[in-house]
Design goal:
With 64 residues, the chain is an all-alpha fold. Helix content is 55%, strand content 0%.
Length: 64
């Protein structure tokens, strides 16, 4: 019951990425750590348990 886990994760990621200043978003370690913490915290709050979270980042370079 309650909110779908996928929605919880997507909301946590979206909010986290929006909160990181644009210049800091190029630092993949900062992004990975922030997303990890946000997703883990959101799922822990929803479940009451600490989940295992793995963050994989794919970099798309649109510059040609």
């Amino acid at each position: 019951e309650g909110e779908d886990m996928r929605e919880i994760v997507l909301d946590a990621i979206d909010g986290t990425l929006r909160s990181i200043p644009p210049k800091r978003r190029t630092d993949l370690d900062v992004v990975q750590d922030a997303v990890y913490r946000a997703v883990r915290g959101a799922l822990q709050q929803a479940w009451g348990k600490k989940p295992i979270v793995k963050v994989l980042i794919t970099v798309v370079d649109a510059r040609n």
